[in-house]
Amino acid sequence: MIHPILMPKPGQMTEECTIVAWHKEEGDPVHRGDVLFEIETDKSIMDVEAFDEGFLLRRLVAEGETVPVNAVCAYVGQPGEAIPDRPSAPATSPEPPAAPEPPAAPVPAAGPSPTSSTQAATPSRDAGSATAGSVRLAISPRASRLAADAGVDPRTIRGTGPGGRIVERDVHAAIAAPVVPAAAVPAPFVRAPVAPAPRPVAPPAVAPFVVLPADGEEPRPLSRMRRVIADRLTESYTTTPHFTVTVAVDVSRLVAYRSELKAAGVALTITDFVLAATAQTLAEFPDVNSRTDGASVFPRRRVHLGVAVSLPAGLVVPVIRDADRLTVSEIHDRAASLTAAARDGRLTVDDMTGGTFTVSNLGMHGVDEFTAIINPGEAAILAVASAVQTPVAVGEAIAVRWVMKLTLSSDHRLVDGEMAARFLNALRRRLEDARSLRRD
């Protein structure tokens, strides 16, 4: 029996993936668990394994090609089996497609059809997509990354690789090509009235105000990762009732304790203590660790702590699982390992899913205070600012202390102001008594 191999959907917000490399050639035997090909999502690279036995009869997607999730990428079966017909994708062209002819009569929208699995190859994206749904852009992964870094729209590049595929040299040529300035937009022609009209005449149309980019200020497209981040956080901010609460934490004793540990050869950071204290506080306040769909509350007793990591291409949030059960040293090791994997591009989908709460730390960048946007599927996020030497009142005297501000952004459907205040005060007590946190 012939089996279609579909492009998997690694994450809830993933709509398309790129095949980086094939591990099987047409005609090769395929066994369950064999790696058929590698895919690149917006944030990671992962293997796609076979679930069926047979032979790789046909590869439908080339290396470097990007297709929607659930698209048919190949067929596995027995030699001689008939391969289902598949409409060929139109060739990619740097010129925009011509506008379609208007239909002679309204066409009713087609509902979902339970027919053959080859229909999974049809993109489910809106018609306004730059690739018009079925048009695929053939580009190598290295060329794609170079174009994103250089701010070049790959749709404007003509590929010289096999089958018109865009390769690295094509992007270099596009970067070196001179920029053609945009032409001025003329005002539309307005015909003057020949004779006075019996009714008041509307004022003539005015040419739209057009801002032309200055030299060297051509726009560049957002990278795929930043588009995903923008979509997710825009959805969160516009559908979740955010509110924020801020506290100032005296971390003078924590700074002194960390210096003692460093002198003894134990390299722990302020962030390690913040993560440990946050995880233990979440175990005390399970509602802050929960989620809601607007109708029900889904409690979560296990604390899976997301740690925001900034990369040149965007932001990723690897997850420390069961963080409330770990010591400060164990959290340090796990956070360091995930951060290194993020910067090397080795994070897996499992590393970045399942978080219940996120910590965003800008303390190393000299930030006095900031707020963060809640990640979808979570009830709150903690923004950690810098520890700054600040004059404060100590009794009736003034002393200089290390002060760090923490801001909790919360979903008001789950967390009210009183709960947010109690959560932050409990977190503050743990940080001001950092020696009580389990280090070993």
Describe the fold and architecture:
- This protein has 440 residues and is α+β, with helices and mostly antiparallel strands.
- The chain has two domains: 3-96 and 120-137, RNA polymerase II/Efflux pump adaptor protein, barrel-sandwich hybrid domain (OB fold (Dihydrolipoamide Acetyltransferase, E2P), Beta Barrel), CATH 2.40.50.100; 224-436, Chloramphenicol acetyltransferase-like domain (Chloramphenicol Acetyltransferase, 2-Layer Sandwich), CATH 3.30.559.
- It is built from seven helices and 18 strands.
- The chain has helices at 141-150, 168-176, 224-239, 252-263, 270-284, 328-343, 417-432; strands at 3-6, 16-22, 29-30, 35-40, 45-49, 54-59, 66-68, 72-77, 242-250, 291-292, 297-298, 305-307, 309-311, 314-316, 319-320, 357-361, 380-394, 397-411.
- It has a six-stranded mixed β-sheet with strand order 9-18-17-16-12-15.
- A hairpin with a 4-residue loop joins strand 10 and strand 11 (297-298).
- Helix 5 packs across helix 7.
- It is elongated.
- It starts with a strand and ends in an 8-residue tail after the last helix.
- The model is unreliable at 87-127, 129-135 and 180-185 (pLDDT under 50).
